Amino acid sequence: MCGIVAAAAGKNIVPVLVEGLKKLEYRGYDSAGLAVISGASIERVRSVGRVAELEIGSANTQSVTGIAHTRWATHGVPSERNAHPHVSGSIAVVHNGIIENYESLRRDLTAQGYVFTSDTDTESIAHLLEATLKREPDLFKAVQITCRQLVGAYAIAVIDHSQPGKVIVAREGSPLLLGVSDTGNYAASDASALLQVTRNMVYLENGDIAELTATSVKITRLDGTPVERPVHVSQLSAAAVELGNYQHYMQKEIFEQPEALANTLEIVGGSKSIQPGIFGADAANLMADVDSILILACGTSSHSGFTARYWLEAIAGVTCNVEIASEYRYRTSVANPRQLIVAISQSGETADTLAALRHAKSLGQMKTLAICNVPESAIVRECALRFITRAGPEIGVASTKAFTTQLAALFLLTLVMAKVKERLTPGQESVYIDQLRHLPVAVNKVLELESDIEVWAKRFADKHHALFLGRGRHYPIAMEGALKLKEISYIHAEAYPAGELKHGPLALVDADMPVISIAPNDQLLDKLKSNLKEVQARGGELYVFADADSEMAESEGVHVLRLPEHYGELSPILHVIPLQLLSYHVALVKGTDVDKPRNLAKSVTVE
Ligand code: F6R
Predict the structure, then answer these.
(1) Between 293 and which of 315, 320, 328, 504 could a Cys-Cys bridge form, CB atoms 3.0 to 4.6 Å apart?
(2) Is 2 designated active site?
(3) Residue pLDDT, tens place only, 153-208
């Protein structure tokens, strides 16, 4: 989704703006632009396409104050005239989010004589601010007045060539943080854009507005009340967002999973037992009378929730429902104050998940837990309890290591709930903890299948559809496999619980429809084999991921790859990895933009 970078420093900031935008590319965008103060005017460069083109276009631009933006089209097609920054009089504005009252603002401003040159909601902010400056010449105060008239979600950054040397930023609903240093002050949508200049980050709250100069930072609320926000020293390493020897971020992130899991599970330490405290100081108290769990999430994060449902009900004996956040927030549901609401999100900023969480709280459901990869994100801040997955920054749009670390976190939740419900003996607990500790090693072994999967991937190059089958706790893994394949290779893929085949989808099966099946050696294997026979009998080509000890033979039209070991309850964490690798290699064969698939954004901060 859109990204913002802004800077006020003692030296030329154009390279900082461009480098910052490159670091935000992973969020997804279709056009980019920057504006700087150049003498008594604003110099603006915009381009459709990659930041690299903007870099060329701005090669001769120099300034100490500027703003930059990557746009993900919402209002108006991707085009240069819709790209940010938008200019009105002496000011330029970049904006992330959606202004809901932009139509009425546009009508009023047009009546006042302003001429709109784009289809965006953002241009209304630019003209509104320009109109406000006629009454209130101080830029900081004028932005406060302007923001009070905006309805919706925004993070904005503004410069004014008649008040050089300062950048004003404000946030309501969309992410924005400051980077502070001795040589300049900066703002961006996330920390990765600013690690090039500083590690000292200040997270703005909703309703905050800040004025940055090369030597000062001033923060107030929208009504002008001064506020102090703490400086956090970012633990992100710049290397964590570098590609290194890998071809794509997605590939790098798939291979980082052993480390990401080890880091996430470090919280368990050397102990043979885990305590509710890993979810927050108040967890034991809050979980004591929990009678059920409701998981809220979108996309891949919802698939971790659907998997956890099997664990929570089977191991902890706690009723668990999973709802797609964008549906839950708008349906009338029965509130249960004893229910634990678990919001799962890698970014912690997904607008639908955040709104669903707020909706649950508005119904009096105050027992809330965030499972998230970004510690300072909105979802984490708004939940009573938290578990931070330690996957490190995930740059590829297709989520991989964030997913497996979410699964690890949800398994820990299962064990804690099982203990709270007195359903776990110390012996069982210690066995599960040992299995969790062994996970990074087990994942490493699965990654060794890459070259075999590459061979399979070539056979998908001319396919337009694929079916993914799983049973039990591996059905959500089949859903995740189908989502990965469709989002990065653009092959239409659907997932079914294998038992459902004969209730409809079998009609689709023929030689052109590859069927990918997850076949762990569990109690459903024999039933799954019968389902696979149904596919084989219709001439379908089967690609089966079995366990080392599964009795699954290769035959005409049946290809089998074996995972090194059967991993019991935690098997979904291993079985998703070959599916990630398969989508990655199919996308390579098809030549798609693996890390930035068309039409998709990494952090979906609008509804
Ligand atoms: C798919 C993917 C998305 C996200 C979804 C929710 O690979 O990444 O489906 O899972 O947009 O995002 P988060 O987890 O940030 O809330």
Answers:
(1) 320
(2) yes
(3) 789 999 999 999 999 999 987 789 999 999 999 999 988 899 999 999 999 988 99
At residue 235, the pLDDT reads: 78
Q: Which residues line ligand 1 (CB under 6 A)?
A: 298-301, 345-347, 350, 353, 398-399, 483, 487, 604
Query: Are the beta carbons of 447 and 253 closer than 8 angstroms?
Result: no
Best CA proximity match to 485, nearest among 511, 528, 456, 519: 456
**Are 93 and 50 part of one and the same domain?**
yes
- Cα distances (angstroms) measured from residue 329 to each of 178, 325, 342, 353: 31, 6, 14, 8
Please name the residue whose Cα sits nearest to atom 8 of ligand 1: 399
Residue in 596, 601, 595, 598 with CA at minimum distance from that of residue 246: 595
Residue 607 lies in a domain: no
User: How close is the Cα of 553 to the center of ligand 1, in Å?
Assistant: 36
Give the whole-angstrom CA distance, residue 219 versus residue 207.
Answer: 10
300 Cα: distance to centroid of ligand 1 (angstroms) = 5
**Cβ neighbours around 121 below 10 Å, total:** 24
DSSP type of residue 84: S
CA 346 to ligand 1 centroid distance, Å = 7
**In this structure, what CATH number is given to the domain that contains residue 357?**
3.40.50.10490
Q: Structurally, how many domains does the chain consist of?
A: 3
Q: Give backbone dihedrals phi and psi of 334, rounded to 5 degrees, phi first.
A: -90, 115
Q: What CA–CA distance (Å, rounded) separates 326 from 341?
A: 15
- pLDDT for the residue 385: 97
Q: Which residue has the tokens 């509130």?
A: 335
Same domain, 472 and 412: no
Catalytic residue among 2, 147, 298, 320: 2
Q: What is the pLDDT of residue 559?
A: 92
Question: What mean pLDDT is predicted for residues 206-217?
Answer: 96
Can you tell me the distance from the alpha carbon of 34 to that of 594, in angstroms, rounded to the nearest whole number? 26
Residue 465 lies in a domain: yes
On whether the CB atoms of residues 200 and 233 are closer than 8 A, the answer is yes
Q: Whose CA is nearest to atom 9 of ligand 1?
A: 299
Q: Nearest 5°: phi and psi at 220?
A: -135, 170
Atom nearest to 484 CA in ligand 1 = 7
Residue 132 CA to ligand 1 center (angstroms) comes to 38
Q: What is the pLDDT of residues 10-53, one digit of tens each?
A: 999 999 999 999 988 877 778 999 999 998 999 999 999 889 88
Instruction: Establish whether 602 is a catalytic residue.
Output: yes
**Set 367, 401, 463, 602: catalytic member:** 602
- What integer pLDDT is reported at residue 1 of this predicted model? 63
Give the best-scoring range by mean pLDDT among 74-88, 180-194, 255-269. 180-194
Q: Is residue 604 part of a domain?
A: no
Residues in the chain: 607
Transcribe 439-508 into DSSP letters. Answer: HHHHHHHHHTTHHHHHHHHHTTTT-SEEEEEE-GGGHHHHHHHHHHHHHHH--EEEEEEGGGGGGTGGGG
Give yes or no: residues 189 and 319 share one domain: no
Handedness of CA 304, 307, 311, 317 (dihedral sign): positive
- Please measure the distance between the N-terminal and C-terminal CA atoms of the chain and give it in whole angstroms: 11
